[in-house]
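fyi for ur records
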Amino acid sequence: MKKTLGRRDILLITLPVLVIVLTAVIVVALQSQSSVWAPSAQTGFTVNGMAVCLPHKDTTGPQTMECAFGIKGDDGKYYALSDTDTSYKNVSNLPMGEKVEVSGRFEKGEGAIYPTVGTIHVTKVTRQ
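which gave:
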């Protein structure tokens, strides 16, 4: 005599399969999202360019007079600078308006106030 599967049997088979498939979909979606949105960092990064005070993105209103240290690379892009030295020895002596080579760890990410493509966590500045 042939036994047929009842609703309960089908549910007991289908439910674990659905849970496994749903879990796999969620894991793949989270991994792809994190690789797209996570800031990428690059060590051993070097940029040649001009030491500058970064310009503001929005120049329509009043502008403050602070100087956010940056470099306008020979590639035409602006990079924010963050000193890895707690005494700011790398960035505090930055020769503004002069050609420099800046080395450090690069963290990609567009600036909110300044038109930067990322931040260089500076380990060395060399005049050119």
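The chain is about 25% helix and 35% strand. thats all i got for now
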